[in-house]
Amino acid sequence: MGLWATYRLRLARKRWRARAFLKRRELRPFSNRTSLIRPTDILLFSTMRNEKVRLPYFLRYYRDLGINHFLIVDNDSDDGSREYLAEQPDVSLWTTKASYKRSRFGVDWLNWLQSRYGHNHWTLVVDPDEFFIYPFCDTRPLKALCDWLDASSIKSFSAMLVDMYPKGPIGGQPYREGQDPFEIAQWFDSGNYTLAKNKRFGNLWIQGGPRARVFFADAPERSPALNKIPLVRWRREYAYVSSTHMLLPRGLNLVYDEWGGEKASGALLHAKFLDTFAAKAEEELQRRQHYANSHEYKAYKAGLNESPDLWCKWSEKYINWRQLEILGLMSKGNWA
Amino acid sequence: MTVGFVMLCHTALDRAAQVARHWATSGCPVVIHVDARVKRQAYDGLMADLADLENIRFSARFACEWGTWGIVAATQAASTIMLREFADVRHVFLASGSCLPLRPVSELVAYLDERPRTDFIESVTTEDVGWTIGGLNIERFTLRFPFSWRRQRRLFDGYVRLQRQIGFKRRIPDGIVPHLGSQWWCLTRQTLSAILDDPERPAHDRYFKRVWIPDESYFQTLVRLVSSTVESRSLTLSKFDFQGKPHIFYDDHLQLLRRSDCFVARKIWPDADKLYGAFLSPEGGSAPAAEPNPGKIDRLFAKAVERRTKGRGGLYMQSRFPNLDWENGKTAAPYSVFEGFAELFENFEIWLGKVAGTRVHGHLFGPDRVHYAGGETIYNGAMSDSASLRDYNPKSFLCNLIWNTRGERQCFQFGPRDAQRIGEFLARDPNAQISVISGAWAIPLFKSNRNFGEIRREAAYLQKVEAEHLNVLRALESKARVRIWTLAEFVDNPMEPLQTIVDEISPRATRRLTEAPCMTDLAGFGQFLQNLRNQGMQPTLMGDFPVGDDTRPKGPARRGRPYLVK
Questions:
Q1: Which SS3 state, helix, strand or coil, does residue B334 take?
Q2: Can you list the domains of chain B with their CATH numbers?
Q3: Is A68 in CB contact (< 8 Å) with chain B?
């Protein structure tokens, strides 16, 4: 990578940061408890809209994992999410009615909050339907992972998105508030992912899974990216470029080994395909606030009308992280 | 007689205090050294915490940056206090603040009482160590290291390179034979005091102050001058990973640690409440007196290091994406590619599946869809049969298939009608066994009921595609096991090549092939080729087929299975 390309990436990073700085004006603090944050706390950042039904389990899951404080942007919910979150003692909440799309799908807002509150903290950026798992997550808290990453001088940790789905029609089993979504969406695709390297940012581009298989078989290049780097030892000069798929400086994207070895990595179990999905797809299609003119949702809607079942006979039933490790979707690396 | 513990602490002082208390209340004196970089307040807290115990001392504080002299200075100071203040100490045990005793102190004391003159210290000559990082063994003793390896890596490396270039060498003092070993030792009073009270000590110290990572060489070297019985191993269970940083123990290692029968382990994660609770409780480890046996833990950590450095061959995933030729196995397992066989033999796939006992697919790279074995539309790992998904990233497709089916050999058909992008990867993959009957693609054309002009055009196209593919297979970079026959050669003598291929696929089946696949009827094929020539196309890849109708190079008509091999 030449000096010129490096310089251009630097400019790009500055631009994203400036943009985040400007977008901060769109955020109104609703309940700011950030004074409770201690220097060693692990922070979770998220943007959401009308996710009340998911919130109780989401918060419980991440509290059990060892998240100390949640910093959440509420994008104009009207289902009571805002009030629910404001009551939580470990949640700081900002609200905005501004366009999700024009904040680059929440990235600008979160970049701002992270540079303001995340400096020198381990920060986890996830959507309310993403559940982070990592090697030994059943026996070691998140702090153990972060301490180990610190000791190994690793600044960012990869967790690929794994789409989970139920057997039978997506709307077949209703999701109750507080329920573990993976009691319903138990299945995943184990071995149909494609990888390519993004030369400019140095990250891997991963696609595949049930969405590519069912919705994007004819347009694979448009199928959603599954590579994610949600856990970062944040510094205020960092910036996410596109969702949590990639960051700048680009060294943070080098979460993979190129000389044959395996670095440690985790996964984000994606509980998108519940009965709430159809309604969400409908709403998002009308709001047109999603990536690339919501073509994802259009494809889903078309796909779901003709084939409502993502399950196939080679679907794998989720057991635990060790299973994903053996299947080769994540790795322990040299953490033992 | 008892054992005294020297503890070097720099973080998690509350845990260090807990362990110090455990030892002290079991009757073992403890001298604690706290890194000078620890804040006064935390240090005072530790002192106050342990103030009620009269057999605990605190030594003068040195800054203990990794790899520097400070650690040795701290050890010397604390050991001196230990020897001076506690006369009944016979063995001094060097531990860190993140060490955890795995067996009751009484067992350690008993163990040492049986070996009153033995010094437990790993001490290996520089020629024999394979574990030093940065490739520096003897050079630790002969170069200068004014820069920090952690903070000024570039200067550090540059200065080392410079010294190598100009041939600079420090003189190793007479009588010193450099030895290296684990920092954590257990020495007898006699040995330790001999090192500390040596009249030559100022000279030794002066020399070792400029050695890199002296805590792994100072005592390890000097012990050889004064001790009569060195047992070259550490009583502390401590494992290092490929970067030279210690592996950390967590709650889920409890059973492993219990079974190791080691006396002390490091490094323990400070928040591993279960470990601290289990091993510091009065009943503690209850195993009968046994020799330390860290074999299981060794294997666990060795596997982790291998996973990190070599990975799983043939796996491409979010944290393993090897550069070209660094894959350590481009694919996960051997597989076979057949080109032209399905055209020449009827029901070749079924036959092959039967004789070789493997999974035989059709044209995986077929232009219309992926032809999995048995006509499946979806396959292991939820792989789709969509041609566009496959062609989006053919390499990922193939590597996924081989990875998903590891343990079961895969065979598939390939030909010039298929998507060709994968060809180069196949040729470079040592796992690929590629068998080609060149020119066999003409057989379906020969059998087809199409206008000859059309056939001629397609024949020319397919010949061009296959010729390019064969060039790739024959290229110098080709690593696959490639065998190429012309159609004429193969028809002449089909059994021998088939036997070779099948033997390679299933080496354990020593039986000779008794059932041959059924060859398609080629009567008139020679004339067909001549017709192509007459139309101005030159079919070359089939080899020399005689034009004469039905007169095949050798013998009788070969319809059916006349050529069984006994």
A1: coil
A2: 335-534 (3.40.50)
A3: no
Domain ranges in chain A are 3-327
DSSP label of A288: T
Sequence-distant (≥ 6) Cβ neighbours of residue B296 within 8 angstroms: B256, B259, B260
Report yes or no: A292 at the B interface, CB cutoff 8 Å: no
Is residue A16 within 8 A of residue A248, CB to CB? The reply is: yes
Test A136 with B252 for CB contact under 8 angstroms. Answer: yes
User: pLDDT exceeding 70 applies to what percent of chain A?
Assistant: 93
Task: Decide: helix, strand or coil at residue B541.
Answer: coil
Inter-chain residue contact A206 with B318, CB threshold 8 Å: yes
Terminal C-alpha separation, chain A: 34
CB contact under 8 A, B250 and A144: yes
In the A/B pair of chains, how many CB contacts fall below 8 A? 180
**Distance of alpha carbon B333 from its chain centroid, rounded?**
17
**CA-angle at A38, arms to A32 and A40, nearest 5°:** 135
For residue A21, the surrounding DSSP H or E stretch is helix A3-23
DSSP readout, B310-323? T--TT--BTTB-PP
A214 sits in which H/E element: none
Q: Contact B318/A160, CB-based, under 8 Å?
A: yes
Give the strand pairing for B410-414 and B359-363.
parallel
| Contact residues for B78 (Cβ-Cβ < 8 A; gap 6+) | B6, B7, B8, B31, B32, B33, B59
**Encoding tokens for residue A200?**
């400019």
Q: In this predicted model, what pLDDT tens digit does every residue of A202-236 receive, in sequence order? A: 999 999 999 899 888 888 998 999 999 999 999 99
Can you name the residues that pair with B437 across neighbouring β-strands? B485
Per-residue model confidence as pLDDT tens digits over A258-267: 999 999 999 9
8-state DSSP, B216: G
ipTM of the prediction: 0.92
Query: Burial level of A174, CB count in 10 A (0-12/13-18/19+)?
Result: exposed
Q: How far is CA B86 from CA A108, B111, B226, B481, B501, in A?
A: 64, 20, 22, 72, 77
Closest Cβ opposite residue B300 in set A262, A330, A336: A336
Angle made by CA atoms B535, B537, B541, in degrees to the nearest 5: 140
Give A 169-228 residues with CB within 8 A of chain B: 189-197, 204, 206-208, 210, 212-213, 216-221, 227
